[in-house]
């Protein structure tokens, strides 16, 4: 019994310590903005990594999701005889909700895991120590460029996801169910307001910060708690990073939605 | 003579969590000399090195750099200290996303306003000193372990540091390359007056290059002195270490049996 | 770090370097010295290092660049007045055979 209580206490203390460290990490990541080295080229490189290379995956996810939305939406709406607003249903669910979330999850899986592994390998191979010994701020050198890059790339990817998804709904609605193309596009145009787009942008920005924060944090602290710098720690950290940041994205999604509506 | 000590270690204790790894270490590192830290694996050599390069925080008053307390360094002061040092890590610690020459260029690119061409030339010069100038454009993964380590040494030398820390320079190297590295280390001391701290367990190389040898054993300082002093030492453990005798004392027999048989049996 | 130049013959230029030639000062003088070497007709540059107090690898790298520029048009770089530090640095960089070094001064070669 005593042992159980002790374990509970240790776990709680660990949790609090981790939270504190996460907060300090966030501060160091921001502080990297005003510290050398120069960030232009690293940021360009990271945008290519986060953005360009996620293009295909996100396009594929978006078009299939759009088509499914078209099918399901048509089924539901036809019960009320209001197939004409299919465009609005597809566009609103994508722009307000699915676009940012899908983009966030896909980029986490593709780029977040890779970032975590990259930084984790640098940790176990003493490369981060080497940076510190060269008086180079590892946060400014490794983490901040990734943050800037994903702040730029996420909203763009989300917009791309929305457009491709709406086109997917169009394919199903117009191509399969023979809706009038004009009706579909018109309902998109008349139903989507600036607030909806704005919410999508806010979400994508939040998700990008969350993803970078959690994934690079997990990589940075690879093996440090265990005192063990074996390669298996990298895979463990990567798994945790993806799971945690996906959960964080979904929670954050709910919070932003509830605040902004 | 006191002022010629770059680093003074005064009763340093070190812990990993609850594990006590260094016990009251006490010695000085003289300027423009080669100090070799020796000991069997797991004796705390690398931990001591991590204290010296500021990767593991030192308690106040225990580690002095030029008479100044390293335990009290703030970040700016620590960076100033680090701009004077070069470190070769055990693994070489090359950044695997960039070529060997770019690796050597990193500190110069970040800390100086030198042009790209000048930096490239410096990187080539440094790589040539370690015998790797033909491998400038290779990626670290294309090099053997020994070559990676030499490239790491080139990077440690990129900023012409005053103090060079080298962790296990010759482990994993063939004898000829290892001897070449030893000579380079001697040359750096003689031509540039560098203060060099080498962590190794290779006795032969230590006796060849050292001005001062520090022997650690199980986290304690066993002996410190010139190679001649160490060689003529009467201390049992030092003699054992020098003569490469296997550990025959079986000090841990009890713990070993305990681990095998289990605690419950002992209590019966 | 300062340098002064003097054109002795149409094809020969003498550069006198003074003070510290290290990674902080090289970026400031590099352009000036290279443009001297790039001048038409200049084939031989003589660098007088006798008033140089310190030389590091960045300084050596600058000399290599000058040498490269001159070698491109068949010229050469001559170093004079080397102090001990300069001789050692050049030898450590394994470049003693690349430069035309005048060995008359002290420092022992």
Report the total helices of chain A.
9
CATH architecture identity of chain C: 2-Layer Sandwich
As for the CATH topology of chain C, it is Transcription Regulator spoIIAA
Q: What topology, given as strand order, has the largest sheet of chain C? A: 1-2-3-4-5
Order of helices and strands of chain A: HHHHHHHHH
Rg of chain C from C-alpha positions? 13 Å
Low-confidence stretches of chain C: 105-109
The residue-averaged pLDDT of chain A reads 92
Count of folded domains of chain C? 1
In terms of quaternary structure, what is this?
A: heterotrimer
Query: Would you count the extended β strands of chain A for me?
Result: 0
Q: How many runs of DSSP E, i.e. beta strands of chain C?
A: 5
Kindly, what is the distance between the CA atoms of the first and last residues of chain C, rounded to a whole number of angstroms? 26 Å
The share of residues in extended strands of chain C comes to 25-35%
Total discrete domains of chain A:
1
CATH 4th-level superfamily of chain C: STAS domain
Quick synopsis:
The complex is a heterotrimer of chains A (261), B (268) and C (109). Chain B is of the alpha/beta class.
Describe the model.
- The complex is a heterotrimer of chains A (261), B (268) and C (109).
- By secondary structure, chain A is mainly α.
- Chain A contains nine helices and no strands.
- Chain A has one domain.
- Helix content of chain A is 84%, strand content 0%.
- In chain A, helix 4 packs antiparallel against helix 6 and helix 8 runs antiparallel to helix 9.
- Chain A starts with a helix and ends with a helix.
- The relative contact order of chain A is 0.16.
- Chain B folds into two domains: 170 residues, P-loop containing nucleotide triphosphate hydrolases (Rossmann fold), CATH 3.40.50.300; 66 residues, no CATH class.
- In chain B, the strands form two sheets. Chain B has a six-stranded mixed beta sheet with strand order 6-7-8-3-9-10, with helices on both faces.
- In chain B, helix 3 packs parallel to helix 5.
- Chain C has 109 residues and is an alpha/beta fold.
- In chain C, helix 1 runs parallel beside helix 2.
- Chain C contains three helices and five strands.
- Chain C starts with a strand and ends in an 8-residue tail after the last strand.
- In chain C, helix 2 links the parallel strand 3 and strand 4.
- The chains are: A mainly alpha (261), B alpha/beta (268), C alpha/beta (109).
- Chains A and B meet through helix 4 and helix 5 of A and helix 2, strand 6 and helix 3 of B.
């Amino acid at each position: 019994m005593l042992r159980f209580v002790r374990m509970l206490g240790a776990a709680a203390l660990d949790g609090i310590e981790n939270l504190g460290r996460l907060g300090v990490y966030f501060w160091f990541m921001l502080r990297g903005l005003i510290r050398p080295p120069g960030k232009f080229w690293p940021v360009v490189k990271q945008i290519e990594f986060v953005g360009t290379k996620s293009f295909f995956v996100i396009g594929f996810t978006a078009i299939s999701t759009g088509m499914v939305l078209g099918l399901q939406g048509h089924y539901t709406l036809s019960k009320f005889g209001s197939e004409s607003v299919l465009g609005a249903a597809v566009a609103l669910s994508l722009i307000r909700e699915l676009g940012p979330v899908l983009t966030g999850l896909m980029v986490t899986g593709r780029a977040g895991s890779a970032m975590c592994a990259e930084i984790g390998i640098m940790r176990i191979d003493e490369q981060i120590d080497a940076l510190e010994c060269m008086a180079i701020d590892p946060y400014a050198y490794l983490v901040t460029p990734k943050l800037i890059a994903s702040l730029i790339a996420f909203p763009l990817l989300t917009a791309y996801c929305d457009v491709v998804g709406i086109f997917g709904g169009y394919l199903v609605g117009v191509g399969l169910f023979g809706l009038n193309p004009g009706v579909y596009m018109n309902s998109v145009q008349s139903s989507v307001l600036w607030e909806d787009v704005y919410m999508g942008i806010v979400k994508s920005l939040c998700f990008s910060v969350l993803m970078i924060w959690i994934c690079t944090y997990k990589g940075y602290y690879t093996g440090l708690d265990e005192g063990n710098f074996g390669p298996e720690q990298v895979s463990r950290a990567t798994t945790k990073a993806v799971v945690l940041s996906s959960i964080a994205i979904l929670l954050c999604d709910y919070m932003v939605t509830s605040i902004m509506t | 003579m006191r002022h010629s000590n770059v680093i003074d270690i005064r009763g340093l204790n070190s812990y990993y969590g609850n594990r006590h790894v260094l016990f009251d270490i006490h010695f000085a590192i003289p300027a423009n000399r080669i100090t070799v830290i020796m000991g069997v694996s797991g004796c705390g050599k690398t931990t001591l090195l991590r204290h010296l390069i500021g990767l593991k925080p030192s308690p106040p008053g225990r580690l002095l750099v030029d008479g100044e307390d390293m335990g009290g360094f703030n970040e700016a002061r620590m960076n100033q200290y680090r701009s004077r040092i070069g470190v070769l890590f055990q693994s070489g610690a090359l950044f695997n996303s960039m070529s060997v020459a770019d690796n050597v260029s990193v500190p110069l690119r970040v800390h100086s306003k030198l042009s790209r061409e000048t930096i490239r030339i410096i990187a080539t010069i440094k790589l040539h000193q370690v015998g790797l100038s033909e491998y400038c454009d290779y990626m670290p993964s294309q090099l053997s372990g020994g070559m990676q380590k030499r490239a790491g040494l080139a990077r440690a030398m990129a900023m012409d540091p005053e103090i060079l820390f080298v962790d296990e320079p010759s482990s994993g190297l063939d004898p000829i390359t290892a001897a070449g590295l030893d000579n380079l280390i001697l040359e750096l001391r003689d031509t540039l007056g560098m203060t060099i701290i080498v962590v190794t367990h290779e006795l032969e190389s230590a006796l060849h290059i050292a001005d001062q040898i520090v022997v650690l054993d199980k986290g304690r300082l066993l002996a410190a002195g010139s190679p001649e002093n160490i060689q003529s030492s009467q201390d049992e453990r030092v003699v054992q270490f020098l003569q490469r005798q296997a550990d025959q004392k079986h000090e841990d027999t009890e713990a070993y049996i305990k681990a095998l048989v289990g605690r419950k049996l002992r209590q019966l | 770090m300062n340098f002064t130049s003097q054109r002795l013959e149409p094809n020969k230029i003498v550069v006198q370097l003074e003070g510290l030639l290290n990674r902080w000062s090289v970026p400031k003088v590099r352009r000036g010295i290279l443009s001297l070497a790039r001048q038409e007709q200049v084939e031989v540059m003589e660098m007088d290092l006798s008033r140089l107090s310190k030389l590091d690898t960045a300084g050596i790298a600058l000399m290599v660049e000058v040498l490269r520029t001159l070698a491109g048009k068949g010229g050469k770089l001559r170093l004079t007045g080397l102090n001990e530090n300069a001789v050692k640095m050049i030898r450590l960089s394994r470049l003693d055979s690349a430069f035309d070094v005048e060995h008359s001064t002290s420092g022992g070669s």
